[in-house]
Amino acid sequence: MKISVVGSSNTDMIIKVPRLPVPGETVIGDSFTVALGGKGANQAVAAARFGGDVTFIGRVGNDVFGIQALKGLKDDGVNIDFTVKDPVVPSGIAQIVVDENGRNIITVASGANQNLCEQDIMKARKSILASDILMLQLEVPNQTVRFAAKLAFENNIRVILNPAPAHPLDDELLGYISVLTPNKQEAEYLTGISITDERSVELAGRILLERGLTRVIITLGTKGAMVIDNGGAEHVPAFHVKSIDTTAASDVFNGALAVALAEGKNFYESVRFANAAAAISTTRLGAQPSIPKREEVMAWLRKHP
Ligand code: ADP
Fold first, then answer.
1. What is the pLDDT of residue 285?
2. Distance 271 CA to ligand 1 centre (A)
3. Which DSSP string corresponds to 163-216?
């Protein structure tokens, strides 16, 4: 299954704290970890660990973080032929604090990710057009996301857009998307609906469908995810785990979803697979280090029929 990912690569600097600070407050943490991250790279690595033949199209800086990020992608078997080493701008950095319940606060210096441009996409054109699915998120410039989505759409390649971090989306872009995968907060941001129960999730999904989408999957943390399309709405429950860090949960979800859909699984089965993969990832610290391999997810699903 060939999957292309256009998106960000960051190095995450993670501090574990007993509780999240409020503005102006210093909270003393008990550990510091450096891990590979960035929504695009996370989704690429996830899709590769779940069995996809993955190409990552992005930018890193020409610095130690960029070199490590490229090595990480390569070690996971991700094709980095179209990952550009920016000659001027440094690599993207994310500062993450995680509390004892696995909740986090994240700030990002985008660095080289902000330079990902249309030419970078054009250089990877052949690879994108040979893909079953193109995956996008919103940590690289909007116009690059739109350009990649349009290219894929016009060539009948399915596009999954994970609209994170929350950002306004125009109808033109939505018209190119096969599956939109906001989390609860992003769905609230995009629709103005306050999501409190299954009905409000479905309502938010319907509002997004009215903007020209055919399918929306809203992820709901410990409650799993809801698939909403013109045929109806279907809730796919989460798996119960002891979470310690939810940092890349939605990236793992999206990577797993892409592979499962590319393999021809139906939406319910694909989301179940994605819920299992994401749940496992929340039991470990860090973005890319937390992503399970396909065999582990399959074993988990066999144990939790
Ligand atoms: P985000 O990571 O963007 O905040 P969600 O919290 O919705 O997005 O998580 C994405 C997916 O990860 C969920 O749909 C669910 O499958 C899984 N997930 C997240 N948190 C947990 C958790 N605490 N327990 C089990 N699964 C989880």
1. 86
2. 12
3. --S-----HHHHHT-SEE--BHHHHHHHH-----SHHHHHHHHHHHHHTT-SEE
